[in-house]
Amino acid sequence: MRPIESFELPSPSKVNYLNATYGLKSWLLTKDHKRIALLYLGSITFFFFVGGIYALMIRLELLTPQGDFLASTTYNKVFTQHGIIMVFFFLIPSIPATLGNFLIPMMIGAKDLAFPRINLLSWYIYLLGGIVTIYALLAGGVDTGWTFYTPFSTTFSNSYVVATGLGIFINGFSSILTGLNFIVTIHTMRAPGMTWFRMPLFIWSHYATSLIMILGTPVIAITVLLVAFERVAGVGIFNPKLGGDPILFQHMFWFYSHPAVYIMVLPGMGVISELIANFSRKNIFGYSFVAFSSLAIAVFGFLVWGHHMFVTPQSVYAGMIFSFLSFAVAIPSAIKVFNWTATLYKSSISYDTPMLYALGFIGLFTIGGMTGLFLAALAVDVHVSDTYFVVAHFHYIMVGGTLMAYLGGLHYWWPKITGRLYPEGWGRFSALVIFVGFNLTFLPQFVAGYLGMPRRYHAYPPEFQVFNVLSTAGASILGFGMLIPAIYFVWSMRYGRHAEANPWHLPGLEWRTQSPPPTENFETTPIVTWDAYEFAPPEETEVVGTLRGEYDRA
Amino acid sequence: MIESHAATPEIHGHPALQHHFENMEQQREAGTLGMWIFLVTEIMFFGGMFLAYTLYRTLYPEAFASASNHLDITLGAVNTGVLILSSFTMAMAVYFTQIPASAVS
């Protein structure tokens, strides 16, 4: 095996994808996957802060048991809009559309995604969906919950359900096109020698994510269209008064929206596989198991939607089968967690910022996954259904999982994306603040929910106040922790130290080109002769100090 | 960018070849796979609607039967004819773009 230090790194060139052309037009009409990734990065960051403001309003209202800060109808709109913005406009596009868009062609040695124009189109569709949704929120908002349950959404709600639904409908096509582009790219654009089992696990997880995107997203699109159709034309698809079935909506909604959880977390798992292997400088334990577990999650994920409907008149036998399958889907997730842990064993771990997020992910995702098993058990689910226990559970997956992975990945690839280094000290500090703030926000919610505090209420009995005060305090710390990276990332784009091509000294293909990369990614199409995570054994490598030391000298 | 890996320069220089593909074969393969995946998304999209249709048709067969008596046979027949004819012209267009021009005349 060749030592890592012997990579042929390209000589630094002044021309890269950022300065190849100038002007607003060169960005808005770009077909470069790296620039489109940055367009996505900017727009999802905007939606993240919009959703964050709603979260802040929810936590402020729940600080006291009385409904004093927001009226009950306003509170309904605030938690609905928090959910819609965060799920559809932040979490679902977050890792695939930014990091995936930027890195998939680079990791497989391609010049671009298979369909660059469709890639740009997907961003414009996302933007249009976002504008329609923002219009709906400004015009008067929507109060159905992000789940749009019928018959409330179709018959009784007096809010902008159709406009919001239209925004989500439009936005769905951006995610379909991204998924389509990724699958075709991974199948047809791999560089010579880049076989399926030499691909980084990040690619496998995005392949599985893309499968869910193309199979699930069309179903949510038609579902919200049917809701709008019923509201506008009065057709009784979901209205029991006209012979419709409101439960049919829940089946169709969760057929997409449960797999959508895996759209959110699978790319995160891909990031974590990269971080764990690379920052412990060791080949991942059980590569093929981690790779195939992504596909297993994508397949099983389509068979568990009924666990959201245990308290509906769903047949008890259907409930038992959905319960069993929900337990089964935990197995591939557990395979990943055990393999990451086994990779860490006797490895050379360096605790840089991305690794802190990765280690945080393993702990938080495990808590989120284990509490998911409580909810997969029929009887326990009846007890905690629609309580804060559920809220805490899915925030551990979506925030503790996806958001941690997203931030970890953003730090890890920041030198490649921008050509600049972020301040490592501030990075570690904010990672710890976010970890503490996150747990303080959501751990008390498990207890409050288990004791019976319902979700979606703006007032609650005073005995739950202690948990809500802890949670609001945690949310403040979490919000503060999020502001630090927002500030230093912007700062580093101008003032950060220049990054070399391979600041972490890693074997991945994306590190074998200059930072930032040229428009076509590589000077010449690479020919791959090595496996992913092929690190030299320690006795062959010259000891050059810690990874951290190398980073400082960069 | 310098292209050292281009296998056959004359294929690489094909006027329809986009810059990010290595050769025409790769480009065609990507386009075909993309179209098949698009068709899968269409099936899932209309599948949701057909699911609702099938459910209610099974639940209320008499209502569907009596409603079908109000349909206009002429309009329906013309509509079907237009759809089939447009599929036919599309299929012919694809067929004739794929065979060499000399074989057509």
Question: Quick one: overall form of chain A?
Answer: globular
CATH topology of chain A: Cytochrome C Oxidase, Chain A
Mass-distribution shape of chain B: elongated
Number of helices of chain B: 4
The assigned structural class of chain B equals: mainly alpha
CATH architecture assignment of chain A: Up-down Bundle
**How many helices of chain A does DSSP assign?**
16
Indicate the low-confidence ranges of chain B by residue numbers: 1-11
Percent helix of chain B, as a range, is over 70%
N/C terminus separation of chain A: 25 Å
Strand content of chain B: under 5%
Q: By helix and strand content of chain A, what is the structural category?
A: mainly alpha
Count structural domains of chain A: 1
User: Number of DSSP strands of chain B?
Assistant: 0
Mean pLDDT across all amino acids of chain B: 85
The mean pLDDT of chain A is 92
Describe the fold and architecture.
- The complex is a heterodimer of chains A (554) and B (105).
- With 554 residues, chain A is mostly helical.
- Chain A has a single domain (34-533), classed as Cytochrome c oxidase-like, subunit I domain (Cytochrome C Oxidase, Chain A).
- Chain A contains 16 helices and no strands.
- Chain A has helices at residues 24-28, 33-61, 72-107, 116-139, 152-156, 161-188, 201-233, 246-279, 287-300, 316-344, 353-376, 378-384, 388-418, 424-450, 465-495, 547-553.
- In chain A, helix 2 packs parallel to helix 4 and helix 9 (287-300) packs antiparallel against helix 10 (316-344).
- The longest helix of chain A has 36 residues, at 72-107.
- Chain A is globular, with a radius of gyration of 23 Å.
- The two termini of chain A are 25 Å apart.
- By secondary structure, chain B is an all-alpha fold.
- Chain B has 4 helices and no strands.
- The interface between A and B is large, with 41 and 32 residues.
